[in-house]
Amino acid sequence: MSINLILLGPPGVGKGTQAQILEKKYGLVQLSTGDMLRAEVKSGSELGKQADEIMKSGQLMPDAVMLEIIAARLQQPDCEQGFILDGFPRTVPQAEGLDKMLAKMQKKLHAVIEMQVDDGVLVKRIAGRFSCKNCGTVYNDFFRTPTQENMCDHCGHDEFNRRPDDNEATVKDRLAVFHQQTAPLIPYYQQTGILQAIDGMAEINNVTDAFDTLVAQYS
Ligand code: AMP
Question: What is the CA(27)–ligand 1 centre distance, in A?
């Protein structure tokens, strides 16, 4: 059976890290809207130019644009195996649009996983974050450095990326945006009965164990 999940939580809580683990372990597809927008920025498209400005400011892209992007992506055949939405929805209108879209596609959301963490920890998590330029594996100066210095554990590559919006000033804006615009999704999904909370402050392995228990409920 395929499982469709949403990872919900503030920037830096570890949604991307856990989504990558779930993708490898269970063959689910990670749908990171942030990654999709960064690819647009890199390609130099009109959408990318708009996204670049907004992302640097820590604000959100318009709901209609994000709904269009995600609708196109969910129609790709690889999503049949199950998907993990990472960074989407981020507002109540996005969640409402997603509900309508999934109903039309006769797809179901199995669980929304709220990853909880203190804001204080997040700044460190985000400011220390970097990833492998080749395979995207995520590391952190404070919490998870490559086993061998300057070499990716996963693919052996020696070049890494830091996101331009991962700086202290932007992080504070992104956290404020999360509390104002994304946190209302918690009561939204609570009402539907599919919301489950996970302690995002735990060690990565413990968070992964909590996900395994959760996924087992739906397999
Ligand atoms: P992320 O990689 O998920 O932290 O996203 C980086 C940035 O991309 C965010 O700060 C927003 O500017 C933009 N973004 C990503 N996903 C969305 C979304 N669902 N709605 C609006 N903006 C988004």
Answer: 24
